[in-house]
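One example copied in:
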Amino acid sequence: MSIHGDALTADVAAEARTLVSGLMTRPWGDASPSVYETGRLAALAPWLTGHAERIAFLVGTQRPDGLWGPHEDYALVPTLSAADALLGELVRTSPACSPAVAEAAGRALRALGLRARRGFGAPLPDMPAIELVVPALVTSVNRLVRALAGSSVPGAWESCPLLPFPEDMDDARVRLVRERLRQGAPLPVKLMHALEVAGEAAVRAPAVVVTPEGTVGASPAATAAWLGEPGGPGRSAPLAHEHLEAVVRLSGGPVPCAVPITVFERGWVVSWLLRAGIPVDVPVELVASLGERIDPDGVAAGPGLPADADTTSVALYALALLGAPREPGSLWAYHTGTHFSTWLGEDGHSTTVNAHVLDAFGQFTAARPDARPRYAEAVRRLAAWLCARQRADGSWTDRWHVSPYYATACCALALGEFGGAASRRPVRLAADWVLSSQRPDGSWGLWDGTPEETAYALYQLLLAGGGTTGSARSRRLSAAIERGQEYLLRSAGRVEDPPMWVDKDLYLPVAIVRAVVMGALHLARSVTTLEH
């Protein structure tokens, strides 16, 4: 990417056009491989194409301390999954097992034992189905350790202590899920995404819904759990087998937590680019795909997932920006009386989901002024609810992204554009927090400076900075923006963003993050051009 002058703006616009066209040629989405999901697929489907590559991925991504994951706080789930997959590989291939696999499994067990003695770093992070995933994996790891004890597989397996459940966690809910499946009882749609926790009870379970695309819960692991052996007894399942083969062909072996993520990816990419004012021609087919699946309950991020207010609101916001506004009435299904839930029956709440609902209502009424009376009170209440959840330092946090820079950008942008006069002070406080937390190299970030988080900070400062022309604060704002822009330019193609988005494992939606960085560069260049 060019660094100086008008070429920068031209290059960003050209890259944005390439990114948008790629959404059509790669319709399932582009997300980073997940250690958790890859471990489950390796354990559940060793017969599937790419098994050796999945095992190599697990061994190759283990950290020096024996754990997996980008940060200590989020290491338990991927480490349990990888350890279980490697232990299962040792049992399956004994006595001709790989020394590298045995060594990695042994290191993982020692690391897990140390974490268990420290209480697993409680409280555990708020992640989908973690209350099912962790007990199921602890039970499976202990079973495999028992199987290896006294075997010919090299390693001191007899001396490995069995893992306890984390404090305040047991396997009662896992056993309940398995029993319901054995009885043929249906499960909530949201549990389909983590069906792998059901073990053998999931195999060809008649109550499980397989989508026409062949996926269960938009999850490779859940699909493999339901499929079992391709030629096994029960319902015919060629679509599920073909779907898994197609997923691993695209990924080369390791797999993401969720696929397809078509509407989710397209909505976020288009909305970030258009919010930044990047001139992109969005194909009519893409516009249609954002709106064609919105029904009275909204739209899901991908086939097999429940409809949710987040995907629905971002799709509606993008459609309004594209000049094709759709009535956002489907979002009322998620209204709890005080705020909007991510999905029906959600435990907890999400600040960014509610910020996106505010975006959807606000942009629709901007496009359709006649609709303002229907949404005015909801907009006012949403803004007040978001302001009340701002932290004392001016930031927000959220359950769907570990970085406060994402949550703060989402909330401040929505409030700055649609929150009215009552939101001005919270928006300014948020900008002050961003200004005060910039790193010496010009970046922003929770664990370390990253291009993704720097881009969120720049969006916020540029679109909701609350600066005053000629003031000392405005000069400080301009200096921070310039340093952040320089960091992004230095980092282009050289800094890999860590996974910080929350699913069963942390993940990186590659196309979405690319759109955010492009948008931030475009905005920053537009401002510096005007100033000079």
Remarks:
- Strands lie at 501-502, 506-507.
- Residues 1-5 have pLDDT under 50 and may be disordered.
